[in-house]
Each structure stands twice: as C-alpha cells, then as structure tokens.
Design brief:
This protein has 516 residues and is of the alpha+beta class. Helices cover 34% and strands 23% of the residues. The strands form three sheets. Strands 9, 10, 11, 12, 13, 14, 15, 16 and 17 form a nine-stranded antiparallel β-sheet that branches. Strands 3-2-1-4 form a four-stranded parallel β-sheet, sandwiched between helices. β9 and β10 form a beta hairpin. It is globular, with a radius of gyration of 24 Å. The N and C termini lie far apart (48 Å).
C-alpha cells in the first residue's frame, strides 16, 4: 500500500500515567502528566499525517486554543482547516487518580460526556475509513477493556506483561541476552530480615555502598530506591563479623538509608517492601558515570526496532529523571542500540506483541573505552517520548542507523548536504516565581524572542506541558540545536527568559479547577 492510499489516522489519546497513585501525589504537577504528549500528537497526527486527533486531559488544558494554535503554527499549518481536526476533551479533576479511572468513572456525569465524545469521534472516523487507534502511555488493563468496548486496537504492550518490568526480572533478562549488570540480588527479598541478609552478602562481596530498589514497576521516577553508604553511616562495619552479628548490626543501620522519596519514612518504605519485595545492587559511584537510555518499540509485525537514544539528566542522587540530551554519546551509542535491541527481542520472545519499551543503563569509563551496565527495563513509553516525537515531527525525519537526526541543508562548502540536529529536553523547568504564569504568556514570550523555533534553520525552543506553570511554577521544553553547545545555550536562555517573565508585574489569574 502506498503512502497516498493509506487510510488517514484518527487517534484518541488517553495518556494515563499508571504508577503508584501515592507517588503521583508527591510529584509536583503530576496531575498534568497526561498533557505531555499534546504537542507531539498534534504535529505527528494532524500536521504530518493529515489525520484527526481527540486528546483527553484531566485537569483541563489551560489556554487550550492558544496551545493548539501554537503547535499547529510551528509547521505553518492552516490553523482554520487543521484546527478543525484537533479536539481536546477535558475533565475538571486534578486528583491523583489515574486518567483512565477518571475517564471511566461510571458515577461522574462529566466522564460520561467525555466517553460520549470519544464514541462519536470514533464512529465518525470509522465511517470515513480512517485507521482508528487508542493511544496511551503504558500497559493498562482499564484502557485495554475500554479499547475492546470501542472496538479499536491499543498501542501498548498488554498489561499481563507488566511483571517483565520488575527489577529482578529485568536483571534476569539482561543476563540472558549477555548484557552485564551491577552486582546484586539473585532474587527479591520481601522481609526486613531478608533485606539485611542480602546487604550482608553484598558486604562480604566487598561492597560498601548499595542501592535498594523496590521490585515494583509502579514505583516510578526512582522513588522506589534507597541508598546506603556504610562508610558514612557505620564505618566500622566489616565483613569479618559472623553472619548473625553482621545481619543484626545491619538491621540497626538500614533505617539510616537515604530514601530518594523524601516524603515517606523508613517504616513506610519497609511496608511497601513487604508488599512488593526489593532487590539490592551495588551503588556505582564514579566521576565518569553517565546514565544513557534506549527507547525501542515492538512493531505490529512483532519486530524490535530502535527508536532513539538519550543521555539522561538525573536528580535526587542520580536516581530520578528530570531531562535528557539527544542522542546518547557516540562513544557508546552503537553498544547501546545493540543491547536495546537484544532486550526488545527478548520481550517479543516472552509474548510482547506490540508497544513501547525503554532500557536504562549505567555507563562508566574503563580505560580508553566505556562499559554499559543494564539498569532497568521499562515496559511502557518513557519520559523521552514526547520530546523525541516533537523533534522528529518538526524535522520530518527519523533516526539514521547510527542513531542521529539529520536534515537537508547547504553543505559547509556549498551545494546540498546533511546537517545533524541534537536537542536538550526537560519537563522540570521549575521555580516558585513562575507560579501564576499562564501557557499563553509563555507562548507569547518565546515566539516573540530569538529563541523561537525557526523552521528554516531547524533550530529553536519548543514548549510543552505548560498548564502546571500556573499552579506549581513548572513547564517543559525541548531545545533543538546544531550541536549540544547550542542546545544547552538555548535551554539556559529559556530559563533566563522565564525568570524575566516572572519578574514582570502581573495580576494573579485563577486556575479554575475542582478537586473532585
């Protein structure tokens, strides 16, 4: 089938982030996470594919008309014609429940109206012969049931495969496909005493720093980790003690572990450990340490394909994702792609038929080369997806076999040539001073500045996830440059622009939402 004869896409996006709701409560602006893919969905589905988009959000997308017009205008789309192919339906619900629960709430009349709008959209597009799909963020049993009810396919792995994203299963898959991992637990432990025994084993193996990881795919953003540096908390603790004494002393020491999630206590952590289990790994600390990631997809033809690579920007002792740089370093990118595809084929062989997956690694220099260590498998979309989709949609290109993005342009010495594009992205451009800023203000400030996306140069700043700014002073952006120096400069100047915007006198504007 030729591109011209393919049916136009019609996508319903319900980007429900289905990690532990208690964790969502503790992440600033987490209720707005479903908005992250709005821009990339508009650019890909409407501007590039001439399709139709229905995007579901809760709480409401602030300044929705301005945001839609902004994304359509990035590629010079006819805002009259193209705007008619974008519809946003929202619920006034800023609670920490999953978006899928909000949409499928049988007791909420507003949710019933949203479901009716989805049904009408799908019926209309199916009659027109469109390729209709339900798009979501990660495996979701509620959305799978809803997709069956609607009679349309979903685009993520089946929820029965969620356990493949657990920490101990990930370690096993890494080992099976020949990817080295940090020293650690052969199996999860689900009691405090068992945890102390496992840490004791690591101490006897010569490790003085360990990271404890809850064995739960629902513990997102590294918030299920605890860090233990025995040289800091118990310098005299050695491996020369007998087993019972070493375990007893570790039971006294463990409560002094540093929790990445600072909003819970050690007792809270132990209760979760007893429910989910945990693994213990050596905590690698190295001046050269980096955190590259691979993003892949199992295609409809059940093939593993490489989508992108990034070097992650991490906070909270190097445990929590806050941003990324594309592509991952050329020093280890080839190995990163190789390892990522091995994992994808292993997931496929375990029955994963379609959908996104991500693989996180640690990279450390060993002499003149780099060693990659498998860290975690995410059987879902990752925090890099919306930025990458935005950039590839704007550039109208896909990655090369070696993982780069190139665009056509004049060569340095004249004539046609190819130019590489890179980017730096963040969901956490955040400052209390930004509270009260509206998306429309951010859009106006960026589009009127030298930072704005320039389609001719194929460089500039593109905003995303802007609604949280009004409430918590947080927004996201992707900064596209010809090299990492330019991308970093754009990000720095964007922060300076936001600072200056926040310093201007302004009248507080109510966000206008309910806490159902």
């Amino acid at each position: 089938m030729t591109a011209a004869s393919r049916p136009r896409p019609a996508h319903v996006h319900i980007q429900s982030r289905e990690c532990d709701p208690e964790i969502l409560k503790r992440l600033a602006g987490a209720a707005y996470f479903p908005e992250r893919l709005l821009g990339s969905a508009i650019i890909d589905t409407v501007c590039r594919s001439d399709g139709d988009l229905l995007y579901v959000a809760a709480p409401r997308v602030l300044d929705a008309d301005e945001q839609v017009g902004y994304y359509l205008g990035l590629l010079g789309a006819d805002c009259g014609e193209a705007r008619g192919r974008v519809r946003i339906v929202s619920l006034d619900d800023a609670g920490s429940r999953w978006l899928s629960e909000k949409v499928l709430d049988a007791e909420n009349p507003q949710a019933a109206q949203v479901r009716a709008a989805i049904r009408a959209f799908l019926n209309d597009r199916q009659r027109a012969g469109a390729d209709v799909r339900l798009c979501y963020f990660e495996p979701s049993a509620p959305l799978e049931r809803y997709a069956r009810e609607l009679g349309v396919p979903g685009d993520q792995p089946h929820s029965s495969h969620i356990p493949l994203g657990s920490k101990h299963t990930g370690r096993r898959i890494f080992a099976e496909v020949g990817v080295p991992v940090p020293d650690g637990s052969p199996a999860p432990c689900d009691t405090l005493h068992g945890l102390a025994e496992e840490v004791a084993r690591m101490v006897r193996a010569g490790h003085r720093t360990v990271v404890i990881k809850l064995d739960d795919p629902a513990s997102g953003a590294g918030l299920g980790n605890a860090l233990l540096d025995l040289d800091d908390v118990e310098p005299s603790l050695g491996a020369d003690a007998d087993d019972a004494t070493l375990v007893r002393r570790l039971l006294d020491v463990l409560p002094r572990a540093t929790l990445v999630d600072t909003n819970i206590t050690w007792d809270d952590y132990v209760r979760t450990l007893e429910r989910t289990g945990a693994v213990v790994e050596e905590w690698i600390q190295d001046d050269t340490l980096r955190s590259p990631s691979f993003q892949g997809r199992i295609t409809d033809a059940a093939e593993a394909e490489a989508v992108s690579t990034h070097d992650q920007v991490l906070a909270n002792h190097g445990q929590s994702y806050v941003g990324c740089r594309f592509p991952a370093s050329a020093e280890y990118r080839h190995t990163l792609i190789d390892y990522g595809l091995r994992i994808g084929r292993a997931l496929r062989d375990r029955g994963v038929e379609r959908g996104d997956y991500g693989v996180d690694f640690l990279a450390r220099r060993t002499g003149d080369s780099w060693q990659l260590l498998g860290c975690e498998i995410n059987l879902r979309s990752t925090g890099t997806k919306h930025a990458f989709g935005m950039v590839t949609g704007l550039l109208g290109t896909r990655t090369t076999p070696d993982g780069r993005l190139v665009v056509s342009g004049p060569a340095p010495h004249g004539g046609p040539g190819e130019q590489e594009r890179v980017y730096e992205a963040s969901d956490s451009i955040m400052d209390p001073r930004y509270k009260g800023l509206r998306p429309a203000q951010l859009i106006r400030a960026v589009t009127r500045s030298p930072l704005a996306w320039d389609p001719e140069r194929a460089t500039g700043v593109v905003l995303h996830m802007m609604s949280p700014t009004a409430e918590v002073g947080k927004f996201g952006a992707v900064c596209i440059g010809a090299d990492q120096t330019e991308a970093a400069s754009l990000m720095r100047k964007l922060r300076e622009l936001a600072d200056s915007l926040a310093a201007e006198p302004r009248q507080g504007l109510p966000v206008g939402r309910s806490r159902r």
